[in-house]
Amino acid sequence: MKLDTMMEAIEVLARERGVAVDAILDAFANALVAAYKRSPGAAEEARVTIDPESGEVVVYAQELDEDGNVVDEWEDTPEGEAFGRIAAQSFKQVMQFKLREAKREKVYEMYEGREGDLVTGIVQQVDYRSVILDLGDAEAILPGSERIPFERLDRGNRVKALILEVRNETKGAQIVVSRSHPDLVRRLLELEVPELTDGTVEIVSIAREPGHRTKIAVISHDPNVDPKGACVGARGSRVRQVVNELRGEKVDVVQWRDDVAQFIAEALGPAKVKEVHIDEEEKTADVVVSEHQLSLAIGKEGQNARLAARLSGYKVDIRSDNEGAEEEASEEAGGEVEASEAEGAPEAATSEPTDEAAEDAAEVTTSETTEGEVEGSEEAILPSEEPEVSENQVEDSESE
Predict the structure, then answer these.
(1) How far apart are CA 265 and CA 254, in angstroms?
(2) Which of 113, 116, 97 is nearest to 30 (CA)?
(3) N or C: lower Cβ tally within 10 Å for the chain?
């Protein structure tokens, strides 16, 4: 049995789809074995050979012993149109399977090892769990956990995403992408800033809250290049492209400083910082700002301070200068009270009598007071003495 036309089709498809001819022939031979076993009077075991040059197909029936070894083999190629139709149907099924398998392998090989790369896709399907993106030669899945919060993606939208993982599964290569990862901002900025691509400017760290704000610390390896200006661009043209792709998410570019205090002060921008006190052991930063800059430094729900802390790796505590002045005043007042108490303590100690002297003084005071009270009471209780009457006064009264 010859398969001349099938061999030509196999060679053409193998070249177009990148599938090995031998792999197709092996799968086709297995399909023909299955077709042979379904034919009337077929042996329980068989093998099929296909000549790749002529397309000649030969079926060998086999007899096996109890251990599975071949004890007898003979040619038993079916004749007639029935087996030819079965062979053609098997060929079609094998080709479809092999083409799908080859495509999956090709996609996996194409995206294998590309974790962290930026890709552009068109939204195909959107639901509450995930978004399917068409990458052209493959499909990518954007899980709900990797989406930008409150971002609306409609079918047909063209979006950029970061490859997180490439898995080779039975159904084919699965490409997982993200739009909330901090490195997405890095890749988007690299598209707009040539200095990042050639290494003149380097992104040191990124702190991001997807959908709200991102802070990027950059440094220049060329003293003639301003890293912040290179990333922002003329009138913010470069960073504006990133903001547009992120649907309005704010992007702050900060210049990296070796001085941690100075770097934290810049990371808290646009707020103006007055003082920064660093504790290297505790990895904390005490920041002092003016009263009217306090809310700006902290940011909405603490966002600005939180991003600055992530960017620098230090715990940031922000307070106003009025709070500092009040604390200093209270500390000084407390010190004065303690000093006055300390100065008055010796006088109180010297002025207080001992226990024995106090008892004697109490006894003396009590006895003196009692005698005085008795004398005073006797004077008050005794009747007044009768006045003396002279004899002349008596006689005058009698004569009258």
Answers:
(1) 10
(2) 97
(3) C
260-267 vs 303-312: helix crossing angle, rounded to 10: 150
Two tokens, residue 217: 């610390």
Domains, the chain, with CATH or none: 4-111 (3.30.1480.10), 118-178 (2.40.50.140), 181-256 (3.30.300.20), 259-339 (3.30.300.20)
Lookup result for tokens 């009698």 = 398
Q: Strands across the sheet with 70-75, in order?
A: 45-50, 57-64, 70-75
- C-beta contacts of 43-48 below 8 A and 24+ residues apart: 43/76, 45/70, 46/76
Range with lowest mean pLDDT among 184-188, 198-202, 315-319, 380-384 = 380-384
pLDDT for the residue 307? 96
Q: What dihedral angle (degrees, nearest 10) is formed by the CA atoms of 95, 100, 105, 106?
A: 90
Rounded to 10 deg, the angle between the 81-111 and 4-17 helix axes is: 10
Give Cβ neighbours of residue 233 (< 8 Å, ≥ 6 apart): 192, 193, 239, 240
Question: For the segment 111-164, what is each residue's pLDDT rounded down to a tens digit?
Answer: 999 999 999 999 999 988 899 999 988 899 999 999 999 999 999 999 999 999
pTM: 0.67
d(CA 212, CA 179): 13
pLDDT reported for residue 248: 92
Q: Mark 325-351 as b/e (b = at least 16 C-beta within 10 Å).
A: eeeeeeeeeeeeeeeeeeeeeeeeeee
Structure tokens at 118: 């930026």
Distance, in Å, from the CA atom of 305 to the CA atom of 312, rounded to the nearest integer, reads 11
Q: Can you tell me the mean pLDDT for 160-180?
A: 91
Judge contact between 74 and 60, C-beta under 8 A: yes
